[in-house]
Every structure is written in C-alpha cells, then in structure tokens.
Amino acid sequence: MSEAQNKITALKDYMETQIIGQEDLVKKLMITLLADGHVLVEGAPGLAKTKAIKTLSSCIAATYNRIQFTPDLLPSDITGSEIYVAQRGEFAFRAGPVFANLLLADEINRAPAKVQSALLEAMAERQVSVGGKRYPLPELFMVMATQNPIEHEGTYNLPEAQLDRFLMYVKIDQPEAETEHKILQLVRRNEEACSTFSPLQIQDVLTARCEAQKVHMSEAVEEYLVQLVVATRHPEKYATQLAGKVLYGASPRATIALDKCAKIHAWLSERDFVTPEDIHAVIYDILRHRIILSFEAQAEGMVADNIIETLLNVVPLP
Length: 318
Known about the structure:
The chain contains 13 helices and 11 strands. The protein is an alpha/beta fold.
C-alpha cells in the first residue's frame, strides 16, 4: 500500500468512527473527493449528512463553508458581489461562501432556479464571473448538496440537466437498532471530530487523485462499462420489458464518471486493476439521476434504480 493510500484509508476509517452507520456515505464522499467531483445526498433529517462533510473538512487542512438554501436567497449570496469602497472611490469584489475547498449546500432544493444555477455554474466552470471579471475557485473544490425527500412544500426540484452536474447522487436510509445504540454511545462520549486525527494536507488529496487514476482497466472491463451506459439509452435492446420505460439515458459524462469512480473504488480496495464489482459498487449513484423515466414507467411506480438493476442482470459480464 502506498503512502497516499495509507493516508486516505486512515481518513476513511476515522470518519467511519465518527459517522456511525453511514459507511456507504463515507465511502462515496471519499470517491467524490478523489474524483474531483460533487455529490448530492438525499436523506431524512438527522442522518448525519451535515456532520459527514463537516467531519471531512476538519480532517483536511482546507477551508469549509456552509450555505443554508432558502427561498429568499440570491445568487450573489453564494458567489459574492462587488461593493463600493468609499475610501478608495471604487468597487471591490467581496468573495461569497462558494470560495472554499469544501462547501455544504444544505437543502439545495429550497432555493429557486437562479440560485441553484449560480452554484451549479461555479461547480462546472470552477470559477465565478462578476463585473466582467473571472475569479477562479480553489484547485481542491468539492460541493456536497443535500435535499430532504419527505417534504416538498416550498421546494424547487433541480432540473435533470443540472442534476447531471453532480458526479454522484447518494440516497441514505435510517439506521438499524444496533447502529442507533452506537450513535447514542458516541454522542454520550462527546467525542469531537478529529480530536485524535492529524489532518491531511491538500497536496495529499491531490497526490491521491493522480495515483488513483493510474489504476488499470482492461479492454474487456472498459467495454462492459460502456455497454452499461449505452444500455440506458436503448434498454429495450437488452430487456424487452423496458421498452418505452426510458425517455433519455445517461450522457457521455456518465461514462467518464463511472470510469473515474470505478478506478478509485478499486484503489481504495488496494487493487491496481478494475473489476466489474468496482463498477457495480458505484453505478447506482452515478446513473440514478441521469436516467429520465417515461410517464408510463412513473405511473407504474418505477424508479431509475429499477432500470439499473435490470440492466445489470442482462448486460453480459466480461
């Protein structure tokens, strides 16, 4: 195991001791961080979504900001704006909270489309344009957005084209009873995040990113990966029961994301090659927000995960 792997594995292991019962969320945060992407997390209140990103930020020597999305939020509240400085007689740019290494966009679906677009543009372009000038965001820049699935009054759903900007769309559930006991014990001990963890430097994360992308993927596995993505566009060719169920399949951005994340998953598993199991481990989070179902499929109560599950069963393994 390389030095970079040791550091990232230690970070992952420590976070799992602080975020009880959400091992999958922790792993997906690690993968998103190393893939230089952004993640949308959906789950009921109180499932440690906010604590997860705060713990991650405290374990890295990086800046962290949080934005609480509300209906009266303005784009400038995110990106920043130019203000007039009377002493100098000129305008100066005051950076908004988006200028951070790790950013929590809490309840992103509470704000209207123009505010969501301001954040998503920064995520895609890695820069903010104000007053005709461009201000680059940090090299290490990751957004974790959250949304609540159980209350839709006063919310603004993200359009599918904007959802595609997220590398992963992770759904989390309530913990089991045994896990609930461990959470209580952790809270009673009042352990503070990173009290015994030496924070990683930003360069450690950047080094791990480069190393993870050197993981080998054979031609057979690569062909399997491509066929899975292509199958979302024409699922009826693989399973007749899916005819008319999908309006739009995943874009090439999904292929790139699946390639990156499968390599990182293999790297975190201490392997230097990708297997189909690595693809299966991340495919739901990468494809579920990139498949648009038809009205017929929605009327039958289907969700994108049903399409993905069926395709995994019918697309031949390498």
